[in-house]
Amino acid sequence: MADLFLIPYVRSVWRMLGHRFRNSGAMALYGGGAHTRWLLQVTEDMPSPPIAAILDDNAEGGETIAGIPLVKPSEFRKGSADLILISSDQWEGQLADRARSECGPTVDIMRLYEGLPRGPYDKSDDKSEALAALENRSNRLPSQLRQVVVVSDAPRSREAKICYALSRAGFETVLLCKRMPSFNAQAVVSELCLYEHEWQALRIASEFNPIAFHCMANSDYRTAELFVRHRPRKVVVDSYDLIAGMYTDEFFASSPSYEMEIARERFCLEHADGLCCRSPEIEHLETNLGYHCAPRLFLPDGCWNRPVIPRQRNDGAIHIAYVGGLTPESSCEGVVEEGHRLWLAKAMHDQAIHFHLFPATSLCGDAFEQGFEPYRRLERSGPYIHLHATAPADLLIERLSAMDFGIFVYNEFVPECGGKRYCAAETTRRLASAKLKLCTSNKFYDYLDAGLPVIHNAVEGGNLAAIVSRFGAGIDVSDAPLSEWGQLFRDVDNELLRQKTIEAREAYGIADHGSKLANFYESLGNEKLNVNPDNRAEELAYASDGN
Question: For a Cys staple, 358 with which of 254, 294, 323, 401, CB 3.0–4.6 Å?
Fold first, then answer.
């Protein structure tokens, strides 16, 4: 039950804010987690102060809480709020410092709990309801050993592939998610359930008793942490991108809010029943940071391995696709960061190479049409740059099949980029060397799925280089000047590369991942799943190579 003092106190503050902004002005909330949802819930019957936005580092385009837009602090328009209210009872001090550095000295920063004992406070009956439901479940629900519940705040391609592989292995797959998936869920899951916040996710989880809860995390471990702490059943954590050890000290110094996620991440990695890893990054944390992680399964994203018929073109030109992060800022001139590809678009334009950009950011409508202006100016200046709307996972492979190559390059390895990595306004370096060597990328598999050889300059001996080079399914541009890339692409034997790409696609297929997962779930407990040994997946070739 919520602390008795808390709700009356918060409602009195809310009433005061309503009086302050009665005639003009607006405020923003800083923090888009469970506290904000609780805050808006316990004040929903009161006149609300005008709220311009909710600021959160993990915000993605189009998200809202109670109808209020959720945006990144760096994308919040200065001057649209007169006050920023810190909405956290556990990390109030850190978020206040972050808000001050992001929003500048002209905006008032208000700490809701300043002068009170540090939280967290018991804020919501969702917690007690979830825990009570979990406690009662064991007496009424039989174990469903052929069922897996995949839990994800924002389901993307990896979740789709996990669910597909499990269904191929004869499992009933339930997808429990906060946002609707970016793929056709009906094709790969048996049931879909939505939650609004992590305690509600845990309460819904009490309605199932599967062999395992497979919890996905992408730089936000709030939901995964609850599942690991309260163990509704066996819990496997699957992190899309690790945080600790993967970014530079300079980046963390400019982003103090990551401290709480690093703590959550370590708790999940060390206390889950098991870990499902898409890259070898976890080994770096054990070797260099002293983590003692749970048992793990190395399971890269892999390819759908669904043959596609390439779209026919008769223009005789070279067409290259880039799938990935592009920031829809009004201007990114002079900004070179890992996600920005303006420098690459300019180089392809100058060398008469058709360059197709597919932003991974979930944008649609006006948000897409009004963004990416520097790219659009380049697009208008000639016939070679093509900016495409975000493609759903189901359609992306077909659209890519019309291209000749896919590209994934680190700009810090391109001399013409001046060795810069991640340069935001304060030119902060972002990615650590371990990240560049150990990470994986689902766009690699998207390219292979579409039959596209991959242009890359991945770290020699690293994980990404091993994926592509094992079958010779790519072009390494590490030693080629940027001005000569166009001629290099024209001179290669594209038919031979295409054949090698098909071989790689077949070798990295995900169809047997389900039986690997089944064996892993079984290894974490006493349940016997009777998986047919003939269907057990073989180790992927590059995994056995130590990469």
Answer: 323
